[in-house]
Amino acid sequence: MTQLVIGQLLNGVIVGTLYGIIALGVTLTFGLTGVVNFALGAFMMLGAYATWYLYDVVGFPYPVAVIGAVVVVSIFGYVSDLALFRFTRGNLVNGLLVSIGMISVFEALVLAAFTTTPKDLTYVLPGALKVAGIVLPKIKVAVAAVFLAVILGTYLALTRTWLGRAAFAYAQNPEAAALMGIRTGRLQTIVVVYSTALAGLGGGLYASMYSIEPTIGSAYVLKAVEAAILAGVGSVLGALGGGIILGISENIGSVFFSSAFRDAYGLVFLILILLVRPGGLFEVGGQAVLGRQICLATPWLTERHGYDPTSIAIYGFMAASLAVSFNLIFGFTGQLSMFHAASFGVSAYVVTILVTTFGWNFWLAIAPALAIVVILSLIVGTICFRFKLKEFYFAVVTLAFSEVLRLITLNWNSVTNGSLGITIVDTPKIWTPSGTFAIAGGVAWYYLTLALLVVVYGVCSRVLKSWIGRCLAAIRLNDQLGETLGIDVFKYKLLGFAIGSGLAGLVGAFYGFYAGFVEPHFLSISLGLDIIAMVLLGGVNSLIGPVVGALVLTALPHVIELSAELRIALYGSILIFVILVMPKGIVGLLTSRKHAA
Is 199 a residue whose pLDDT tops 70? Predict the structure, then answer.
């Protein structure tokens, strides 16, 4: 047993260095540009594919292939900074969403070019080292050594060179650095390109150890952001330390507990650290960062059903209901919650299990489902608001709770049927004086989901017009000022969070019975990002904006006849376009033009 634990510790350190090299890019980019660049995951994936292509297809020696991949990725990084990121500097949310859109585009294009078939490099460095009975592949040891050398070299360069001192000065005080003659724009571009080069190097060396596929970047950039937050964004060596801690926690957790919850161990540890030390273990300057997010996927609401207008409208109404309820928390309270998809998914599962397993009536099952969602939201909200986690740390912790719930539904096979989900054959029934009426067929669901949208919209409208809405508006503008005015900030933040989450649960109760199934994807981060995209596209400053955004994003992929991969790319491109060109959304743009006229 001791030998097994030691072996897992060493493997955790090796995996942690990979997390650390990407986390270093995250912390450098954020420190100099104010952007949490999730596109580093896409650049890692591109580095892996470029290395595979140059080594296995073209026939270059492996070191030359890795260097070539790093150069290619660096060029992509320079172009993306010039064309996109320089317009989002200093705006954390916009930069984050643009980078997520880039992941969507790059993954879709690579998927179209190389399909989902994993690619493997022929053996680069075969053999293994055996120390005290512990076997470690030589290639993994060599890769970890390279990562350690690069991270330590970066640290020395930042502390002992003029460029490093300039970067440090800019991170501390951009205005003073500019007055001292530092060319801040060029410095930011250098850091962005170097960070993408690190991601490309990580991908190139990753390809020598594991199979590569289009989604590897999304998975590893999430781990990297976890490591960066865990360490405290701004600490170069902390990025390495955070990566190693994360790698060890996953490996050791898999030894003593179930390996099925491997991803959850790091998340739980991250939540505990943020509650005790909001700036991370190695906090530098108390900088905040928006945490774990994942790449966008195809619009989830129509991916398994026909494209007839009635079906699209039904999914559009449910998407609009989700977006409106989310905007109550995000647009009108100023809280970037990543718990919304979990509220939706938990309710869908509870109603489905009560009906299919225990024989409950559909309408009666909605009440306990909503009660569970509200209780969960009160627990999560109390933890976040009691510890005064604001803005992006709030997003990190709600995201972590959401992912833990997803992992539970994925691995609790005896109750949720795991990754296969639960098939639903029952249909809701409505009693009428002339008899029982089953809600089956497009027309019935069309009017039911339209009524659902009206109810959600009406509840949110009533809340916003009440004293609660006025308190939420004051909190969004300045919660400290709200406290001086006598507003119980904790109470109203928690109330707004619970109402919005409860309405999401109401939508989830209906969605599974129309779709005919529930699955762990209902709680996924990608669904949460889809909801955010709908709100941003329509506009966050009104209730009607999310409705418009949801209907457009639900219908658009089917109005334009494209392959699944190109629909994903289109979806990511729309997100980037809206952030850079239409920051007020469709409704905001139309309103501005009307006032200008």
Answer: yes
Q: Please indicate whether the domains covering 2-276 and 300-596 agree at the CATH topology level.
A: yes
Query: Domain residue spans in the chain?
Result: 2-276, 300-596
User: What is the assigned CATH class of domain 2-276?
Assistant: mainly alpha
Pairwise CA distance, residues 479 & 465, whole Å: 19
Structure tokens at 408: 């539970």
Per residue in 32-46, pLDDT (tens digit) is: 777 778 889 999 999
pLDDT over 50 at 396, yes or no: yes
pLDDT value of residue 287? 40
CA-nearest of 174, 240, 266, 195 to 38 is 195
pLDDT value of position 2: 67
What does the angle CA 324 – CA 293 – CA 317 come to, to the nearest 5 degrees?
Answer: 25
Long-range contacts of 134-138 (CB under 8 A, 24+ apart): 134/3, 134/6, 134/7, 134/10, 135/7, 136/7, 136/10, 136/11, 136/14, 137/209
**Rounded distance, CA 251 to CA 407, Å?**
17
How far apart are alpha carbons 125 and 229 in whole angstroms? 33
Architecture of 300-596 per CATH?
A: Orthogonal Bundle (1.10)
